[in-house]
């Protein structure tokens, strides 16, 4: 497939009716070349858009992270997935799935994170990120 190059400059064309979950917004459209590339790749009509911070605001539920905003995610500023959880899931599936199906922003490769067990959910006391090359 041909390479797609997208300018880092802010697009000026507005795309109305962009749907994310049950939410509909206007976004900035990256143009027809990007649309054609994604349409060919996905196999159905597609547009590449970026969040329009001038006209749209989405706040995170204050019960989880008061004062934070999200853009195209489903309501939380980041998603962390552990490699160990994916490995465990893949042991149960006929065909393994890749981690990118979950669209994580961060992938944990260690189960040594400190957490508190609350009911059926875990709440992390802290999260430390170490970047590697």
Automatic annotation (TrEMBL):
Protein's name according to its UniProt entry: Molybdenum cofactor sulfurase
PROSITE patterns documented for this protein: MOSC
SUPFAM superfamilies: MOSC N-terminal domain-like (SSF141673)
Domain MOSC: 53-133
Source taxon at top rank: Eukaryota
InterPro entries recorded: MoCF_Sase_C (IPR005302), MOCOS_middle (IPR005303)
GO molecular-function term, one example from the UniProt record: catalytic activity
